[in-house]
Amino acid sequence: MNNNSESTFGAFVTPHLDAAYNLARWIVTDPNDAADVVQDACIKAMNGFASYRGGSERSWMLTIVRNTAYNFLRDSKRERFVPLDDAITASLPSEDMNPEVQLVRGINIASVQSAIESLAPEYREIVVLKEIEELSYKEIAELCSIPIGTVMSRLSRARIQLRDRLIKMEDVR
Amino acid sequence: MTHREAQALIHPYLDNELDSTMTVALLEHCSTCEICNARLKEFSVVKSNTFRSIPTYSAPDKLKDKFAAKEIVSRKKRWRIPVIRWGIPLATSFALGILAMMFVFRSNTSNDSLTDEIVWDNIHALKSNHLIDVASSDKHTVKPWFAGKTDFSPIVIDLAAQGFPLLGARAEYLGGNDVAALVYSNGKHYITLYQWVGKQTSENITQTVRGYHTLSFTSGEMMCVAVSDASEEELKNFRATFQKEVSGQ
Is the pLDDT of residue B73 over 50? Predict the structure, then answer.
């Protein structure tokens, strides 16, 4: 790799570092681990930079960050990482037949943060890609290499769990 | 529209993923259905609060400076990072450090760094007990598993009848290439067959690197290197068996 391609890579990666770090931070949760994951992902990206064939730069970078973060989780065994069974998650969430609305009030950043952190990594990442990166279902599906139906079912499951956890936190308070 | 159908549409509606026809159908249903209307309100609150309150983390300045200054970490360092972070006991990391140093010395003199990298990857996989990500001898399980993980679809064949049962596979990224690693067993030995599309390291060459034998060959458009601690003869036998099966398909 010559100096020219390194400088090109620096210019390429800098605008996406925050998004890369944010995604890594949400998947692995520890700030130091997240920085390591991003650094590792940047090196992988740099080595593969020559083979980058266009398309969304950010998505390309986030895909590498995501894979690196999952490799980290799996290898560190800090979080028991069990891939979700998509045969189960692809099915629709069970019907909720209660007509009562339990509106969540008084939500603050800390409670949203801890509710999202308590989700499985596969749910966390979908919420982050949707609500922070504001990606479409199709873009999320491509980034995570899962069908759009799985994106939909994971997102709805994530929101059901978020609702339940936020309500629980309110009850405790 | 049933409750089930309506509730499946609530999240796509909140995320602006529904076309106008479906949107009208959903809202019409909710206007007459107390249950679905309650869910719609509830998840609308969850969605908007998540969207508003989800914390966003910025990359630490240290990380930004590193890349802004184009001070890119050399690839040798890459091997040390995981060792430190993964908290492998000190003795192991010390031993690995020595191995890494030997690797650096060796790669300075070697003219085939990709083979070195492959052998190192194999050692790394064995040490971290992370040989396969998808455990299956079924090519209809293993081959599709690579979709989206590598920029090609590798040749996957089980050679159990010939004495080399396929145990599974993993995806790697080596020397700037997506690489498929298929793991076969051979008695008490493992044979890992690396495949990629691109430049071949060297044609039909056997090498011994760190006590592991490697054998490079080409199969169709796939560049292959087989790595094992089994004997060179066994590797040649494996290649012949593999090639025979491929051409017989």
Answer: no
